[in-house]
Fold:
Amino acid sequence: DGGITQSPKYLFRKEGQNVTLSCEQNLNHDAMYWYRQDPGQGLRLIYYSQIVNDFQKGDIAEGYSVSREKKESFPLTVTSAQKNPTAFYLCASSPRTGPLSNQPQHFGDGTRLSIL
Amino acid sequence: QKEVEQDPGPLSVPEGAIVSLNCTYSNSAFQYFMWYRQYSRKGPELLMYTYSSGNKEDGRFTAQVDKSSKYISLFIRDSQPSDSATYLCARIVGNQFYFGTGTSLTVIP
Structure:
């Protein structure tokens, strides 16, 4: 079945450590996104990518980094500069981008990151 | 200014009730609307996707868009305990996505 796979499901970070969250999609979608979800705050956009080897900052990019070396993959690194990383992280993808991009996003099942 | 406003609830109803979930939005640009359902510890799942004003029906779910009032609604008929989840409304304007904060629904057997 086509879909978005996020791993791991649960992740723990020590102080000063960088951690990387994996996101893989087999939907052949062009655009991929990373969101952070905190209770009562809804989804906040961290980074998005419309094409391989290109990505843009979202609303809360500080302390995070991404890469898009393959169409299928969009890993997110939570760096030690992110002082409050405990949250539920969601990866999403959508088929097209640009002015005719009115296609809904599809989501993975998330990674829950906690501080040790 | 939030692009989509949604009452967080929580909302609790008895099994079999009709549920009404609502969102308001802030401008009238060319846009599409969506409803997602999110179970605890899972990612949001697309339920409904619509552009035009009026109703779109899919089984027990009906999405309604009222562009004159800038109001979008999701109705759930014959609600079931399995409908207990958080429901997020969303809109697409160009290639920008805007999500509501979600309404938590519990259907009591």
Remarks:
- Chain B has a mean pLDDT of 90.
- Chain B touches chain A at residues 8, 31-32, 34, 36, 41-46, 49, 51, 88, 90, 92, 94-95, 97, 99-102 (CB under 8 Å).
- Chain B has no helices and eleven strands.
- The CA atoms of residues 1 and 18 of chain B lie 31 Å apart.
